[in-house]
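Format notes (please read before filing issues)

Several people have asked whether sequences and structure tokens are stored in separate files. They are not. Every record keeps both together, in the order shown below: the sequence lines, then the token lines. Line labels are part of the format and must not be stripped during preprocessing.
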Amino acid sequence: MDERPGASSIMDTKPEKCDFPGMEHLPRLGVLLSNLGTPDAPDTAAVRRFLREFLSDPKVIRLPRWIWLPILHGLILRFRAPRTARAYRAVWTERGSPLAVHSERQRRALQIALDGRGGAPVSVVLGMRYGRPSIADALHALREAGVEELVVLPLYPQRSETTSGSTEQAVREALGQRGWEVLPRFVDDYHRHPGYLDALAESVHEYRAEKGRGERLLLSFHGLPKRYCEGGRDPYAAQCHATARELALRLDCRAEEWAIAFQSRVGRGEWLRPYTDETLTRWGRQGIGHVQVLCPGFAADCLETLEEIAIREAARFRAAGGRRLDYIPALNDRGSHIEALAELVLGPR
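Then the structure lines:
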């Protein structure tokens, strides 16, 4: 069997003979597990292809196309792609991109978890919003598997039109292009789902039991331009704050022991504040020696957690006077996380 990340996500979807008399009539459940995506390789050409698809999405960059596309092709792809490729090389593994590897492990674990629930047969496939395996290819595999009921689970705990909304649009477009009339159920968000929050708290407790407790805990979420969320147009910021508060309660953190911040901003416009880099710099200058960073909005470790936080922001913190920054890994295929995802799939059906 091909062991490359994503390979078995298509191969494992063929219908199996039902061994339980009387169950043949049950509709086959299909689950599309989706994340942002990743380049095929840590080189400039592959990264440029990925960024072109990602940054051409009107839900991600909300500027008139006649303004944005010349900037994208004339500047961004030319200068950003080489820098981003170097960052990917710093975290690339023998099996490929960390996001691809962890996402495939999540897919396999969720397939096993759902297989153990009995009832209708289940097919779980992985489809990335950008790059490969694509959402269109994943939906084709589910249709070929005889799926009659479709659940789409974007791995974004906090909903944004730039992520979950874009995924929903891509799914609907792919279904329409193929004339598949299945009615999908979308998991909009799970920012306050008890299983998700419990899994986060469990991961922090286990990390601290092994590595010790830092002086501060920073809950770092991916940033978003501030204007996207103004007037309640996008629930993302409010949901990030809700997740952070609920998690701090579960961890029994005092107000002065933790903070929320937003990372990964680009450009000159104002993004959601406070900023992760500025927060860590301030803490270092204030003489705080040991901080721990958790990124609750990332379901799987990726460039933004392993390179941006664990490498670049750790160096920034030390340069500002801090002594030690611990990055607490994403939930990835942790058992309690997979159980929470299974509950989301099997929820109100």
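For reference, the curators noted about this record: The radius of gyration is 21 Å. The chain has twelve helices and ten strands.
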